Amino acid sequence: MSAPRTPRAYADPYVAGVALGLVLLAAFVLVGRGLGASGAFASTAAGTVALVAPDQAAASPLFAHYLGEPGPWLEWLSVELIGVAIGAWLSAKLAGRVRVEIERPETLAPARRLALAFGGGVMMAAGAVLARGCTSGQALTGGALLGVGGWLFLGVAFAAAYVFASLLRKVWS
Amino acid sequence: MSAPLLPEGAPLAATLAAALVLGVGFGFALERAGLGSARKVVAQFYWRDLAVLKVLFSALVTAMLGVFWLSRFGLLDLAAVHVPETFVGPQLAGGVLFGAGLIVAGLCPGTACVSAATGRIDGVFVLLGIFSGMFLTGLILRKFERFYTSTAHGAWILPELFDVPYGAVVAAVVVLALAAFAVAERIERGAR
């Protein structure tokens, strides 16, 4: 089981995009809902808080949402995200791209890269809660269904990313 | 046949099985496109490699056209497809916070999952950050509940907002995407 020495090049973005669009379409046709990611973390956090402090969980507008049937541990998006990890690993394995590493620009120290990764994750969680979804649940799914919120989120998030990218030029150069 | 095949109220085991299979396809496509790489994602915002825009818009257009034509031919009941809800104020604020976090982290929640699953430690830390952020946000959200639930418009869609036929918005999005692709190709040629 040795991976090929040179990882294969990534697929054409338009081909990969159309394939992703067909998966999203299949989701609409099969279960009448789109794809997502951030909701899996929200439901898992809701389930954890409900175990430790049920009152806190029930009082939170975010957590309470996941506590009804079938419960936070059987959330659709959590199962979907497990699938994402399996599919990503499979694709990378087939292309010789599985590699344990800290991906970063040479000028960015590993510890700093990990701290930024964590901090950025915290910010995205708060943003996704307010927006009721992230790049997949709002921008992609909402966008394909012509949702006003999806397009609003897509436009604002992209614009903000460009502004912050110019402020963080030193980090990513 | 009328889709969705497993509408609300369908057996949980069947919808969760579908979730797993759809997730595998989602993750496979994202990894193939290279979006499990933080440097490739971030390159979009320095105009070096516009794969994020190309993948996102070709996926969006493909699914949008599929939904439009399937419902036109009576094969898909659009009313039974869940449209993510609109909350104007929270989505404006959330979009800014999310866009900033995306540049700090280098990955979004879905692509961070791809990054982590393919061995990248930075992807794992993004996931840990998102998980911690969900705890934090969930615990303090009560104080911001009025803002969180403000400007609610439900499953509001662009054809309603602009008061034009569904097909007209679909056509406009296709034109917008094709124009964006043309500009993206030109920018990438300039960057090389």
TrEMBL record, chain A:
InterPro entries: Sulf_transp_TsuA/YedE (IPR007272). The chain crosses the membrane at residues 73-92, 113-131, 143-168. It is a multi-pass membrane protein. The keyword Cytoplasm does not apply. It is found in: Cell inner membrane. Pfam families: Sulf_transp. The keyword Cell inner membrane applies. Keywords: Cell inner membrane, Cell membrane, Membrane, Transmembrane, Transmembrane helix, Transport. GO terms for cellular component: plasma membrane. Belongs to the TsuA/YedE (TC 9.B.102) family. This is YeeE/YedE family protein. It comes from Tahibacter soli.
Automatic annotation (TrEMBL), chain B:
The chain crosses the membrane at residues 12-30, 51-71, 91-117, 124-144, 164-184. It comes from the Bacteria. The keyword Transferase does not apply. Keywords: Membrane, Transmembrane, Transmembrane helix. The keyword Transmembrane applies. This is YeeE/YedE family protein.
